[in-house]
Hints:
Blueprint: H1 8-19, H2 25-40, H3 57-71, H4 76-80, E1 82-85, E2 88-91, H5 101-113, E3 120-124, H6 130-138, E4 143-148, H7 151-163, E5 168-172, E6 188-191, E7 196-197, H8 206-211, E8 218-219, H9 226-238, E9 244-248, H10 254-263, E10 266-273, E11 279-286
Parallel strand pairs: 3-4, 3-6, 4-5, 6-9, 7-8
Antiparallel strand pairs: 1-2, 9-11, 10-11
Amino acid sequence: MSVNIQTIKDIRLFLARELELIYPESETKAFANIIIRSLFKTSGQYNPAFPDILLTSKQVARIRSICRELKTGKPLQYIMGETSFYNCTIKLNRETLIPRPETEELVNLIIKENREFRGTILDIGTGSGCIAIALAVNLPGTSVTGIDISEGALALARENGKLNGASVSFIKADILNFDVRNLLKTDIIVSNPPYVRESEKRFMAVNVLGFEPHSALFVPDSDPLKYYIGVMKIAGNITDPGGKIYFEINEAMGHAMADLLEQYGYSAIEVIKDLNGRDRIIKAVKNG
């Protein structure tokens, strides 16, 4: 039986009923929280202590529309057109990946280790700009640049920079074929490039495969480190001894990445596990 949506409380009941056969209860509750916050953030009406606040007909129509899209498997972040990342609001489109909690862990590590840093940071493969923007906002005094091959992603990244009051430069560039003369010397490089092997597609959720850009996700099994090698070649030309590099990585590639960094003249190499206990971040320092 369909739930009649009239109040905030009804939103939770409606979504729980409509989505119970598709999503786990915990995920549906999270959807409800995000939708409610989004619906009321501009009006300032929403207070969780008042679940009986009446909805407008426009709000009810929006909730029903969101629910229909959720039933197709479309990620909520694409439906809402934005997500929260390290306390920044990041707008999204189909040319940009949805930022993951693991990427927030990467950003948190960089911020924690470089609180007094005032130099230059380069984010290679910036996508929505979430990493570059979060670093610029949380490390004031730094000069942050993001590069990406996608014009659509860069346009959105620039919009996100303005939205969050972040001073970031965004440049179009191909990681695998880039003229490093276009970049100045950089102190810290960070990158979250495509790293999911084609053979790992079968383990991925339908909503990821059906909606997120494959070019930002997948690499061939025969050359899984191709983008990391591209980054290392760029880094070799624009970082001085003592420069730092941080990567998000495939959990199966920790040892291979450590070997790659050593091969390119880096030391103090450390593979770091994410909150789920998987090898997810690697960091290193360029040798003198």
